[in-house]
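Lecture notes, part 5. Sequence design as translation. It can be helpful to think of inverse folding as translation between two languages: the language of shapes and the language of residues. The source text, in structure tokens, appears below.
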């Protein structure tokens, strides 16, 4: 293929030819290339257009296009709503009757498939409460856990107020079945939803998971529980 035809093919494909300006040492002498006149004019126009684009000043600011009312996002006003009134709440509690003094509520990960303590959680719990009560404890681990919401059905309320009322009703049932004077909630995040009721004390501390992840929190929990019992 002759050079003129080759250059026309490259130009049609948008490929710009390049020739080195310097001769490398011991390089073979290159054949002189005769550029077609039409190709030279096109290259000159491209260079001129590129330089003009580079030197052209950018706009100072660009005003956004107006959006029609149909495409504007809808904003829900929540400033005048009480906390936990409209937002969905989800949590899971394991219940352990330690002795005639205390019933413990333990926050579990909601996505946790099991509703009971893992082996390492159970061992940490036993160590804590055996240390708190010198005579030792006989733990009742058979109490049905509490999981909120009861159902994911659309018509079921899942907000904080409904969670608090349902958990309070469940705790009232446990008061009729077991003898205890105080509640211990191991899980500060759901403290607003726990109502101990009259004649019962409530102590709130870190969850078992938090202590397992950060062992330095065990000292904090120990002092809190020792002070309350």
């Amino acid at each position: 293929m002759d050079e003129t035809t080759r250059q026309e093919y490259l130009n049609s494909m948008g490929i710009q030819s390049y020739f080195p300006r310097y001769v490398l040492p011991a390089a073979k002498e290159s054949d002189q290339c005769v550029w077609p006149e039409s190709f030279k004019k096109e290259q000159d126009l491209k260079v001129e257009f590129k330089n003009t684009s580079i030197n052209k000043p950018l706009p100072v600011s660009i005003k956004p296009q107006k959006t029609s009312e149909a495409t504007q996002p809808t904003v829900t006003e929540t400033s005048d709503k009480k906390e936990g009134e409209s937002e969905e709440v989800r949590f899971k509690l394991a219940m352990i009757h330690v002795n005639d003094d205390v019933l413990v509520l333990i926050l579990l990960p909601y996505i946790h498939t099991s509703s009971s303590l893992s082996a390492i959680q159970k061992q940490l719990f036993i160590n804590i409460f055996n240390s708190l009560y010198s005579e030792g404890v006989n733990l009742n681990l058979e109490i049905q856990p509490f999981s909120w919401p009861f159902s994911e059905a659309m018509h079921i309320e899942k907000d904080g107020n409904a969670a608090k009322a349902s958990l309070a009703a469940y705790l009232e049932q446990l008061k009729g079945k077991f003898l205890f004077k105080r509640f211990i909630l191991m899980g500060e995040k759901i403290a607003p939803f726990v109502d101990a009721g009259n004649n019962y004390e409530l102590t709130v501390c870190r969850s078992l998971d938090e202590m397992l992840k950060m062992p330095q929190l065990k000292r904090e929990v120990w002092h809190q529980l020792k002070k309350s019992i």
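The translated text above is only one of many valid answers, since several sequences can fold into similar shapes. Confidence is low (pLDDT under 50) at residues 61-81.
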